[in-house]
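Try this one yourself first.
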């Protein structure tokens, strides 16, 4: 299981969303915690990054609430061997700036 937290400035290419394709070869799940208000934009960007992976085969199911996205990839050098990845994004409340 991989756990990522999207930084405040998700527009750059060095954040966790940019690293999602690197995780696609590992069976299991990836959790992405987002504090930004642009949650839908970040999730759409993350799903797009996963679909761009060279080992991407197909999308799996999406639950009724859109909070779990399943993907199927193939193993490097063996297109018939599949790896399944569950992507679960979570929208967290922004931290209060004052106490």
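Now uncover the answer:
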């Amino acid at each position: 299981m991989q756990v990522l937290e999207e930084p405040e400035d998700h527009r750059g290419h060095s954040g966790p969303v940019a690293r999602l394709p690197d995780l696609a070869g590992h069976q299991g799940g990836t959790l992405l915690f987002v504090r930004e208000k642009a949650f839908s934009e970040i999730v759409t960007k993350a799903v797009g990054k996963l679909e761009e992976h060279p080992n991407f085969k197909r999308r799996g199911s999406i639950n009724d609430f859109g909070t779990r996205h399943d993907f199927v990839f193939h193993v490097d050098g063996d297109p018939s061997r599949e790896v399944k990845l569950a992507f679960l994004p979570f929208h967290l409340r922004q931290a209060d700036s004052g106490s």
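Discussion: The beta strands are 2-6, 28-34, 56-62, 69-75, 78-91. The CA atoms of residues 66 and 88 lie 9 Å apart.
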